[in-house]
Design brief:
The complex is a heterodimer of chains A (257) and B (250). Chain A has 257 residues and is mainly alpha-helical. Chain A contains nine helices and no strands. Classes of the chains: A mainly alpha (257), B alpha/beta (250).
Chain lengths: 257, 250
């Protein structure tokens, strides 16, 4: 019982620390100079690093969904609803979730390692001695970049996923393309797009926040120091962010539905 | 600006490990003090405590400004203006040599117009023989060059106190004396105080006003360099002897 309480207490403490770190990053960033340049640079960094992988995953997710849904729906004679099924699944759920997981895998681990190395190399201390707020300087632009790039990459994922569904459902399986697109336009409403957008914003700020938090505090890990501490921080960042995405996807969905 | 930094009873424990155990030290304006001692005796920890990067377990670090009328006014190291040259240089890999040196002027507490930043940084790079490496990244440069970039970054804001953590480690003898000369020259030019961790004995004696020998968590000697040789304590003699390897004591 005691150990369970300890685990819960540690979880709450860690969650609080991450939330405070995120808030501090978002606020302290504005004490830095050339804020807009930093946001643009970080957005390009995250966006460019991930756009290719997001497009590939989006295309194949859409294609798999097109095939699976087609074979399921045709059993009930409802193959015309393929566009509805593919678009709603992608825009509401799979788009934001898979995009977030891809960005965490691609950029989140790199972010965490980069800040971890800067911590080990005393660069974080150097910033503080120069009178630069290190949290605002290192984490702030990445968080704002997450807020911008996650929804954009999610939109790319959704769009190419719909084309993937079209390719497998219509080009390969022979469903009428006009019906596919008409069903999409009829069934996707603003609230569906809005829901996906809210999710991608939440995932953007929290997953990038978790990754920068882990890198920034890698020196506090008492079991692993130096490079091992950095790799440990990157692993923890990816695992925690991925769990966060899946748990919060459920919570946000239950609020939105 | 006249000031004093008074360190009294400073201790730092990392768990059960006592690194500093009641350090007393006074740093006056426009003086250069070298901290010497064996590796692992807490010299860098002392520097980080003074810079406020880590917090002490006990003891005090007080900064006071001595006004022209002799009045003493409490102040802080930030208000006096300080910079820190790290042992591992702490340069940013994603920034060029020029950008690294300009960083405190562009992002820190010393905002300057772009043209002034360029002029100042280029002048420093030229003095340190780094003009040809201006647009290169730290990863493309040698250890000695990176050391000089870190040195330039520490001086670019014209601070009143500079903390140098082994500024000459990894430099060839010629560059080492260039760095020592620059510390001396800039002290005369800008009137800063320097606290310097060094293993370059006796070369460092040439530029310092006083020496502090840190051993077993305490300052066991503090005074003029010429007086350190007169100390009869065995541990300090042994340390100084290993610092000056000559054909006679090999």
């Amino acid at each position: 019982m005691n150990s369970l309480l300890t685990i819960i207490a540690n979880f709450v403490r860690e969650l609080g620390a991450i939330l405070l770190f995120i808030a501090q990053s978002l606020i302290a960033f504005w004490t830095c100079k050339n804020c807009l340049n930093k946001i643009i640079q970080s957005t390009l960094e995250i966006g460019c690093r991930c756009v290719f992988i997001v497009l590939i995953i989006g295309l194949f997710t859409g294609m798999v969904m097109g095939l699976q849904m087609y074979y399921t729906l045709i059993k009930f004679g409802a193959d015309a609803a393929l566009g509805t099924a593919v678009s709603l699944s992608l825009i509401r759920e799979l788009g934001p979730v898979l995009t977030a997981l891809m960005i965490v895998g691609q950029s989140g681990s790199a972010l965490s390692s980069e800040i971890g190395i800067q911590r080990n190399d005393e660069q974080v201390d150097a910033l503080e001695t120069m009178g630069i707020n290190s949290i605002g300087f290192l984490s702030g632009p990445r968080l704002y970049a997450g807020l911008i790039s996650f929804p954009i990459l999610t939109a790319f994922f959704d769009l190419i996923g719909l084309y993937g569904g079209y390719f497998s459902g219509c080009v390969i399986m022979g469903l009428d393309g006009d019906i596919y697109w008409k069903k999409i336009f009829d069934s996707v409403h603003f609230v569906d797009v809005y829901g996906g957008f809210i999710k991608s914003l939440c995932f953007g700020v929290f997953t990038i926040g978790i990754c920068t938090y882990e890198g920034y505090h890698c020196h506090l890990n008492s079991s692993y120091k130096g490079i091992r501490g950095v790799t440990q921080a990157a692993t923890k960042a990816v695992v925690k962010s991925s769990v966060f995405v899946l748990v919060f996807d459920y919570l946000i969905t239950s609020f939105l539905l | 600006m006249n000031f004093k930094i008074n360190i009294h009873g400073l201790s730092k424990h990392f768990g059960q490990n006592v690194v500093l155990d009641g350090v007393d030290l006074q740093i006056n304006s426009e003086t250069i003090t070298a901290i010497i001692g064996k590796s692992g005796t807490g010299k860098s920890v002392l520097m980080k405590l003074i810079a406020g990067i880590i917090k002490q377990t006990s003891g005090t670090i007080e900064c006071v400004q001595i006004l022209e009328n002799g009045e003493i006014k409490p102040t802080s190291l930030d208000e006096i203006g300080f910079s820190y040259m790290f042992q591992n240089n702490a340069l940013f890999d994603s920034l060029t040599a020029f950008e690294n040196v300009a960083l405190p002027l562009v992002e820190g507490n010393h905002p300057s117009p772009k043209s002034k930043v360029k002029e100042k940084v280029d002048h420093l790079l030229e003095q340190l023989d780094l003009t040809s490496s201006r647009n290169r990244y730290p990863g493309e440069l040698s250890g000695g060059m990176n050391k000089r970039i870190a040195f330039a970054r520490a001086l670019v804001t014209e601070p009143k106190v500079v903390l140098f953590d082994e500024p000459t480690t990894g430099l060839d003898p010629e560059r080492k004396f260039t760095v020592f000369d620059m510390i001396k020259k800039y002290r005369n030019q800008f009137g800063f105080s320097a606290l310097l961790v060094s293993h370059d004995i006796p070369d460092v004696y040439e530029i310092v006003d006083s020496i502090a020998w840190l051993n077993e968590g305490k300052i066991q000697f503090f005074g003029k360099p010429e007086k350190i040789d007169l100390i009869s304590e065995i541990s300090i003699k042994k340390y100084l002897k290993t610092g000056r390897i000559s054909p006679n004591n090999l």
